[in-house]
Amino acid sequence: MNRISGSKKWPLALAAAALFVLAASAPAEEGMWTLDNPPLKQLKEKYGFEPTPAWLEHIRLASVRVGDGGSGSFVSPDGLVLTNHHVALGQLQKISTPQKDYVADGFYAATLAEEIPCPDLELNVLYSTENVTDRVQKAMTPSMTPKQALDARKAEIAKIEKESMAKTGLRSDVVPLYSGGEYWLYCYKKYTEVKLVFAPEQQIAFYGGDPDNFTYPRYDLDMAVFRAYENGKPTKVAHYLKWSAKGAADGELVFVTGHPGSTNRRMTMAQLVYQRDIAYPNRLASYKRRLAICRAYASRGAEEARQAANIIFGIENSLKVSTGEYEGLLDAKLMENKAAEEKEFRSLIEAKPEVKQMVGDSFQAVAAAIEKLKSRQTELSNRNLPCPTLGRFALQVVRLVAEVKKPDGLRLEGFHDSQLDSLKFRLFSPAPIYPGLEEVQGVDTIKQMLDKLGPQDPFVKAVLEFGPTPEEAVKALLAGTKLTDPKVRTQLVAGGEKAVAASKDTFIVLARKVDPILREQIKWQEENIDSFVSPAGEKIGQALFAVHGKSLYPDATFTLRLTYGTVKGYAMNGTLAPSKTTLYGLYDRAVSFDNKPPFDLPQRYIDGKDKLDLATPLNFVSTLDIIGGNSGSPVINRRGEFVGLVFDGNIESLVGRFIYDETANRCVSVHSAAMIEALKKLYGAQALAKEILGEK
Amino acid sequence: MNRISGSKKWPLALAAAALFVLAASAPAEEGMWTLDNPPLKQLKEKYGFEPTPAWLEHIRLASVRVGDGGSGSFVSPDGLVLTNHHVALGQLQKISTPQKDYVADGFYAATLAEEIPCPDLELNVLYSTENVTDRVQKAMTPSMTPKQALDARKAEIAKIEKESMAKTGLRSDVVPLYSGGEYWLYCYKKYTEVKLVFAPEQQIAFYGGDPDNFTYPRYDLDMAVFRAYENGKPTKVAHYLKWSAKGAADGELVFVTGHPGSTNRRMTMAQLVYQRDIAYPNRLASYKRRLAICRAYASRGAEEARQAANIIFGIENSLKVSTGEYEGLLDAKLMENKAAEEKEFRSLIEAKPEVKQMVGDSFQAVAAAIEKLKSRQTELSNRNLPCPTLGRFALQVVRLVAEVKKPDGLRLEGFHDSQLDSLKFRLFSPAPIYPGLEEVQGVDTIKQMLDKLGPQDPFVKAVLEFGPTPEEAVKALLAGTKLTDPKVRTQLVAGGEKAVAASKDTFIVLARKVDPILREQIKWQEENIDSFVSPAGEKIGQALFAVHGKSLYPDATFTLRLTYGTVKGYAMNGTLAPSKTTLYGLYDRAVSFDNKPPFDLPQRYIDGKDKLDLATPLNFVSTLDIIGGNSGSPVINRRGEFVGLVFDGNIESLVGRFIYDETANRCVSVHSAAMIEALKKLYGAQALAKEILGEK
């Protein structure tokens, strides 16, 4: 499943700086293009298609960013938002109870009154963008030290965001593109009043489970429908996607608008080698460890299994993604190609004296920063607060009350004025927290720290003050906290520094104690890594434009991108994969596996089989260049109609983080026809189908 | 498709000598065991199954060798023989005409009277085997030169075969096993009066065409039914396989009896390197060249396409097999494993002084012979008579009349008394010969010779005496021959040396002229290669027994073998392949490809869909260790019942020529249930279904 996974936890300096370009210009179907720089030339030359500004505006305003890891689109004038089931999964789990499991059973609201409010889902629609590169760059002067320049840049960015929010009332984010070669101000209309309209059983949304995840041929109805509200009423939107019930034909030109999370196609070789030799092996080991812990918890009983399902799903997903990416890095040919590309880029830089001077020793600066990073790598990636939800909330509370008192520009990332609404929305969420699940993960976090850092590490010591063993420490932490109650979190934040300083809540006590240790780490990273890598990235990004003009797209940043491609099968497993699958194939796979999990069908599909037209297309593949974060993105034809719902990439697409290969990299989507067929014939969701089809 | 392909054309010395052993004992599911040495220990330990001598005799006598490249089994007491459509394909093509195309349309004889006689299909049933190693080895004395020893061995083998045939009336073949470590006399009951009972459309037998060939999941009804006759009446057989309509369950123990063509699992490293660096690249280039020629011919029109279909199918099949095998050889890990195994085997030999002395310099002798072979490699593999069918027939006629006058032991291989019946059966076949198809291939054969050998080569010169260019030479050859008429071939042979010497038939004239050139090559190979490799092989084969006892199976030799395994899916394409597919999957694949060739369904399947139970299993996979030649083999359960029909291996199985890997090497079979479902509901073949099910 293509949701953002893992990548957000990468060391900041490396995630931010991805620094060089693949080739003189992006090949045929490649590219996650910003909407200010769409690939008009390629579209005209290859397809004779010239999207108008109105066409581009329409698809932009119909596109929705969903939560902090997914995409979606408006599909009715009354605010219906279509996304993936796996993007909605967190919300489905949060509204479920031991008595009513919407994840397993699905949900359909036939009327507005039946729709269920989501506890903490934020939707964003990109209203405007503005190039603020000049302003950001002018904030820095040549006389500044690297750290001063870094601080100045951050302060200016926070200022731009704050001004914009005050002026427009919109969520305002400054986004570095081309590793800082450009800075853009993105302003979003925000919806936080969102209700659930429809979700199928997870069994069919995620049919084939972890084995089939990131593979094709595929048979998943990975869809969920929300409705955006404003002031208690369904929002009215002028821009939504009209539905094409017949979908896209084999070979047809299609588009995706969505929010790819991150790619690393422009990393330098030094960065790639670091990823291959250090970052990925560590990350994979950590996933495996956590997965084992959560699976053991889930095996305790049905309710534990329900609680842990979303986390297990997420880790399995991340593990499969990272394994595929890691295998790419281990591929000697890929690394050779990357080295050749960097060599070519650097020789182009050498050939232009003014560019050469501007770039200076930027490549070496990145390599040096990585060497420095290695010296503290173990601390940086292992000092984690035990219990993922409670630990995170405690640290956010402690930091929030301190940061808001500082000038906006000097605050920690995540605590700028423009970011506070979204932060509080999640921090004060009424979604349930499961102590048992927190406990097992907390114990393991401490054990891992003990393994990696030893008992003398100050962070570890602080944790073990609550108990001599990981088990006892976590038990004490859980016994002494009330942070599971969102009201308590709200009251603490309302009480400010004084209330937080006085709190005897165990998690708050721990967070107060370790925050200085973590702040020292952040400061060290800023001074030693970011202060060098950020300007190097900016210079290399500018060299990119100097050498290639703007014929390029930037690495993904979880901001709106346009990609184009064709519906197309590929050579696979010694034969051909067709461009689409059908409902026949779903039943084939179920019977082939004797209807055993994860290949079992929901009862509804067994009982309702004869109602279905089994020749209905179910999933399809295209050359669209996507990555985690694109999940839920609409697939759009040249008439701007909705033809499919992105939900995954094939196994060959995983290496797409580093390099796009059109021969086998495929985006996997749910076909529009299958959604209507299922809604009408299996779910009795006539009203929803009519609204989507515009028939009401 | 798993028919013997290409391998028969390998240089004799290399095909005959495959010399070392994989490991101390064959791992779990591996092995193509002779029926004198079945894997009783493994079966007992792993499955608690102890086949009785009667069980083994029963399945041996129910197993049929089909033609010169396939397998089959008796499935009724009245001589019904079930095999693959692709094994029957040659016969189907030969009985077809421009007016009636049984390949495309299929065939069903509801009554005995409607059954169609096959022009030249020979069936063999293994009646007895006898170890004749001592007799063969005693024919050679230490005082003989290598060439004398080779001749003595061949003469003794011919003598044993002739004596046996005279005594038993059975087809009698002496088979070298374990690269000559043992020699066995195999006696077969032979059926040459064979009629076609049933064949489906090739479109469904070979559904998915070349792309799906050698892959899985798969959806093929690759079956054909013949009936063996004796004296104009259906033969009565005591041993035939009872039908299990429900087939084998996932995880069930199953067996195959069949005739694997050749494997090279015991080749020395020197041989493997030769295969990798010289034999495979040459072979692949030659296949590609011939395929292009035949496809161009087929594109001329419908009738040309019909004529060329079987040849194109064969070359595509060979090309896919050889590509898979070649990729295996290019895999550095496989070669490392092979080197390690040879090293271990040789160190075990070193450890036993008497074995060490016996083996002597055998490994070096093989390597030296290969070096010698390289010196004439280009001539040996390129001097071919133009026009594959007519050229072969002409050479056989010229040689036959000469060879029969010699003492049996001194004749060329293929012309011993015991081999003459089968040779004449094919040589005098009434099957049609297509001059157009002979022409295009003939022209290309000459062009290829010109490229590789140049115009001064005596063989090339002899061919070009018929015309100054390849085109003109072939035109003249075809204009001056009557060998297309089987009566002419019969008369020439009947007329003996005198008639052949007097013949002005162009192909006979050419064959007379080039035969001495080819005989010199054979002699050179015998003196320089076989005389050294054969005794080396024997010694290494004996070392095998000395080191490992008889816990091993010999490389495949197109003789009856027993393999065992389990019905089992495998990890594939990032996910799992199920152990079976269903009719649902067939329709999925057809609709997924918009019913376009080679994924289109016969009209019968479109019209008859609603009659079918789509949940019927269609194909299934097992760990059975098979290779080309096993096509048409029965899959048998422990009750000795027929549960499936072997027709292919998956893409991962191709490397099985050199090494068996249970994790992904799978045998692909047609499920017994699908055959009955199709016969009854789509083909109206109630009588045949009843006979197979024993219901009549």
Walk me through this protein's architecture.
Two copies of one chain form a homodimer. Chain A is α+β, with helices and mostly antiparallel strands. Chain A is built from 25 helices and 20 strands. In chain A, strands 1, 2, 3, 4, 5, 6, 7, 8, 9, 10 and 11 form an eleven-stranded antiparallel β-sheet that branches. Chain A is globular. Mean pLDDT of chain A is 93; it is low at 5-26. At the A-B interface, strand 16 and helix 22 of A face strand 16 and helix 22 of B.
Quick overview of this protein structure:
Chain A is of the alpha+beta class and 696 residues long. The first copy, chain A, contains 25 helices and 20 strands.
Indicate the topology.
The structure is a homodimer of 696-residue chains.
Chain A: H1 12-16, H2 40-47, H3 53-62, E1 63-66, E2 70-74, E3 80-83, H4 85-95, H5 102-105, E4 107-108, E5 116-117, E6 123-131, H6 133-138, H7 146-168, E7 171-177, E8 182-191, E9 193-199, H8 202-205, H9 209-212, E10 224-230, E11 233-234, E12 253-258, H10 269-298, H11 302-330, H12 332-351, H13 353-359, H14 362-382, H15 388-403, H16 417-427, H17 435-453, H18 458-464, H19 470-479, H20 486-502, H21 506-548, E13 561-566, E14 570-572, E15 575-577, E16 580-582, H22 583-592, H23 603-607, E17 617-622, E18 634-636, E19 642-649, E20 667-671, H24 672-681, H25 686-693
Antiparallel strand pairs in A: 1-2, 1-6, 2-3, 3-10, 4-9, 5-9, 6-8, 7-8, 9-10, 10-11, 12-13, 12-18, 14-15, 16-17, 17-20, 18-19, 19-20
